[in-house]
Design goal:
The chain is an alpha+beta fold. 29% of the residues lie in helices and 19% in strands. It has nine helices and nine strands. It has helices at residues 3-11, 24-30, 35-40, 51-59, 75-82, 122-125, 131-135, 146-152, 193-198, and strands at residues 15-20, 32-33, 65-69, 90-95, 106-107, 155-159, 161-162, 167-173, 187-191. The chain has a four-stranded mixed beta sheet with strand order 1-4-8-9. A three-stranded antiparallel beta sheet has the order 3-6-5, with no helix packed on it.
């Protein structure tokens, strides 16, 4: 397999997608779909991104992909939770690295909508990815440094759809009622995602 796949297997890591709980029932029924697929199938979606952001995705050809991250500490997610407050009931989908066996996947080493972002193939981007920075816990020393932000916002772009058979776990915000959903034997975990992703910690572990 490719170098990124091999690295994730070595680190016992998967991939991540964060979305609104309101979308979970549809995701469980239809899989995780790209923006183009959602619109083609007239899906009702609770977006946490703005219309302008989605228009940019379409302009740059990103709307045909499901966008995944290496870490839930992707900075834009924290901004949507804590600053913009457009992500009110977050869930985290933990995706198997096996999706990297799909064809047509692209990779970035920063947020894919950055003006200077380039879509790479797996092996040609590998040497530019700093996995130590990607996975380093965000703290008061690194959270605002561009090199760490770019590392955390490196993306994996999967064409069109990810079926639920590739879901390793779903983490749901504590307090959300989900028992009525058919979760298809996917492992479910409850956690205080909002506090976890919307705060930074200093070296002593105190809130920054």
């Amino acid at each position: 397999m490719g170098k990124i796949y091999d690295k994730l297997i070595e680190l016992n890591r998967g991939l991540v997608h964060v979305t609104e709980f309101n979308n979970l029932e549809s995701i469980l029924e239809n899989g995780l779909l790209s923006l183009d697929e959602l619109e083609n199938q007239n899906m009702e979606v609770k977006y946490s991104s703005s219309q302008d952001s989605r228009d940019i995705d379409k302009h740059w050809g990103l709307s045909k992909y499901v966008r995944l991250a290496y870490t839930p500490f992707y900075d834009m997610i924290s901004a949507r939770i804590g600053y913009y407050k457009t992500l009110k009931n977050p869930i985290i989908l933990l995706i198997s690295a096996e999706v990297l066996k799909f064809t047509g996947i692209k990779f970035t080493n920063k947020n894919a909508i950055c003006n200077d972002a380039i879509l790479y193939d797996e092996d040609e981007i590998f040497d530019t990815l700093d996995f130590e920075k990607i996975y380093l816990p965000r703290d008061t020393d690194n959270y605002n440094l561009e090199e760490y932000k770019n590392a955390r916002q490196s993306e994996i772009l999967i064409p069109q759809k990810i079926d639920i058979q590739y879901f390793n776990k779903i983490i749901i915000q504590t307090g959300i009622q989900y028992k009525s959903l058919n979760v298809y034997n996917i492992n479910i975990m409850e956690y205080d995602i909002i506090n976890w992703l919307s705060i930074w910690k200093n070296k002593e572990g105190k809130n920054g």
